[in-house]
């Protein structure tokens, strides 16, 4: 499995979400139909900071050997984030099949990354021949 592609995709998606949540949380709350308050704006910005931090971790690690025992903390952190987030999204989607397409899209992305990082975590990496 080519971890460089997965790490790059995760970095771009999380970085985009992180920047959006950090700099326009009010617009995103309104789009999602959620109540805008000081607390919700603060939490959205903190969530954006976390997403951007994960994006930077993935971007800086994309060229490294990842999998098995190599860079295990990076693989564990990503797999844990995407697995728990994916399970929470699946729970919402199972209880509300009329959820917006945005929730469905994010759910599919989270599930795909959870599977990819699970494979990366439990497989020994193979370095590509130059």
Describe the structure using short key phrases.
130 residues
| H/E topology pattern | HHHHH
Radius of gyration, in angstroms, nearest whole number: 16 Å
**Sheet having the most strands:** none
What's the total count of β strands? 0
Helical amount? over 70%
Rounded mean pLDDT score = 91
Span of the ends, CA to CA: 16 Å
Strand content: under 5%
Oligomer: single chain
Query: Judging from the principal axes of the Cα atoms, what is the shape?
Result: globular
Poorly predicted tracts of residues: none
> Counting H and I runs of at least 4 residues, what is the number of helices?
5
**SS-derived structural category:** mainly alpha
Descriptive overview:
The chain is mostly helical and 130 residues long. It has 5 helices and no strands. The protein starts with a helix and ends in an 8-residue tail after the last helix.
Secondary structure elements and pairings:
Elements: H1 3-23, H2 25-32, H3 38-61, H4 72-95, H5 101-122
Helix pairs in contact: 1-3, 4-5
Q: What is the structure about, briefly put?
A:
This protein is mainly α and 130 residues long. It is built from 5 helices and no strands.
């Amino acid at each position: 499995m080519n971890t460089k592609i997965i790490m790059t995709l995760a970095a771009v998606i999380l970085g985009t979400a992180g920047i959006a949540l950090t700099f326009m949380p009010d617009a995103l709350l309104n789009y999602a139909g959620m109540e805008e308050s000081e607390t919700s704006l603060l939490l959205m910005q903190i969530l954006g900071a976390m997403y951007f931090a994960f994006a930077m971790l993935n971007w800086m690690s994309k060229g490294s050997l990842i999998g098995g025992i190599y860079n295990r903390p990076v693989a564990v952190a990503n797999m844990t984030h995407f697995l728990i987030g994916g399970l929470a999204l699946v729970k919402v989607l199972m209880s509300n099949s009329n959820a917006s397409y945005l929730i469905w899209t994010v759910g599919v992305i989270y599930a795909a990354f959870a599977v990819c990082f699970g494979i990366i975590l439990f497989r020994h990496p193979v370095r590509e021949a130059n």
